[in-house]
Amino acid sequence: MKKNNIKIKHTKKQMKIVRNKFIPFAGYKAINLFGVLFVRNNAKLSEIDLNHEKIHTAQIKELWYVFFYLWYVIEWIIRLPKGNAYRNISFEREAYDNEKDLNYLKSRKRFDFAKYIKA
Ligand SMILES: [Zn+2]
Description:
Mean pLDDT: 91
Shape: globular
Low-confidence stretches: none
Largest sheet: 3 strands, mixed
Bound molecules: zinc ion
């Protein structure tokens, strides 16, 4: 994407956002639980943060919700010994790599997170 040609248009569908002081734990901004975004009261959410979470929603839906969380936790555990486990989970790699492209979800194909699985 060209720097000067960033389109702010993105998927029309708005995320349901629940602001609260408990979820997620302090130090984290937001967590996507079954397509609903839980955000700490004081956290600021940018368009990029929202896009990141929308990418997760796409992953969550295509894995029928439960398989997303199962896979997420298993991949996190497998990656723990190597360090930086969270950032290397395939779902997070896809989301971080594409969060700045606000049109990413328009062209994303089903199961594209699989391209981000690495050994
Ligand atoms: Zn994420």
